[in-house]
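Re: Re: token formats

Sure, here are both.
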Amino acid sequence: MASSDKVPGACPARNGDKKIPPGDPMAATTVMLDKGTAMMQSLKPIKQMSQHLCSFALHSHDPSRQIEAHFYVQRVNQDFLQSAVYDSNSSSAHLIGVEYMVSEKLFNTLPPEEQKLWHSHQYELSFAGSDRSPSHSKGSGACRHARTPKHCQNLRQVLVHVADRPRVNISGDRLPLGPPALMMSPQDVNMGRIKPELVKKRDDAYGISTESILTTRGSITGPEVKNPNADYWVEHGKGFAIDIVETDMKKTAP
């Protein structure tokens, strides 16, 4: 059993409303302070996020544990992107992880042991219809699929590394308890297929059809030969779990 599989002991963070973290309601003075600081501060890193992708993620060591994930992406350069991962696109969404994306060119420069921790978007984009950019209007219920085949072509060439604290979503805890987990992408093998009920729930929420979107992605192509260390679990049936181990602290500088 991985550390992320262990259920934390009883505490207020595990009781009550599964969607709301414990804590007092925002005081009026706090709301005013937050609004004031928002007007004065540049928040430059956050404002660099220019894309919103909605997909699904699986625990590396247990693909049956699946979550809907929303990625708010910043492109740092042509070969490197980084994103904050949330469990929804609402104003009360939980921050559950970070994801890094690199081009195939950069991926191939990584050591083999590092490559095993990364996954591709190839199946997600072309066959699962998972990676998409929803644009949702709450008032009208309108939703459009904004990701074009050209965008998908670019993303299909990237390899991804994502570490999440998804316990809030999976177990219903009110705080992100326990150790983080390495997450992987959907794949068309074994337990890599996303549960139909998750796809339906997401499609219904945005008024979209995964089946219809797939018809627009027939022209997308991926690498002619994929590095065998990408999506390592697909070929080898081995995932990776993060365990928390107590250890002696270093008491002197290197």
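Second one below.
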Amino acid sequence: MVPIPEEGDFVEEHAWAWTEVIRRKKTSSTTPIHPATDSGKVTLQLSEDDVLPEINYWSSSLYGYIMGTNPPWNVVSGYLKRIWKNYDVDKISFIRNGIFIVRFKTVEKMKEVVKPGHFMFDNKPVIINEWSPEVDLVKNNVQTVPIWLKLSGLDLKFWGVACLKRISALIREFFRYDEATIHKTFLGYARMLVDVQVNESFPDSIQFKDEKSKTRDIKVEYNWVAVKCTQCNGIGHSKDQR
């Protein structure tokens, strides 16, 4: 039976352990690293072998953030685990300023998540991208974002798939409808997800001519509008919200 050490014995054993580490370092045959000097400044050139293990480790990862908000990390983690519970998530880590990185067990599972690429948190777009060693983990490289919008005042004859797609194209690229619009269970407005340019204006109405050349004016509402900061050019906040 191994005796339980007293407090003094633990400190002595701990001190011996560090002494052994130092001794082994002194007697190690590992070739020391001597950084080069350039104009008096110390420089160090890393090799591919130095970084390859981490590149391989994160190769099945995506990174992203929630545009327009920065919830607590545990809320974001719980949300990501829930929406990707069937995609073999291995690790969720947080980097800075609301940016997260998610590692999957396989590259294939990661690509399955990235392919559709349209996720929303509290009606705000979740921006995700496939990670690569050259990627710059910042928020300001977004050009387009998915946004849910509502088209109010549509006559019943305009609720067909072909009509709605053509009408929504007046704003931006169409992605999908919500369930109530697809099944026509609520006809107060048509709700759809579209891809919009963050630097473009968001019209509050659109016009088109119907089959009899009558001009129709349709009201447009957005669940969320991309705000651009005039100070840092970032997306999702104004100058006063920084």
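The first helix runs from residue 7 to 27. Helices lie at 7-27, 48-57, 73-83, 107-114, 161-168, 179-183.
- S.
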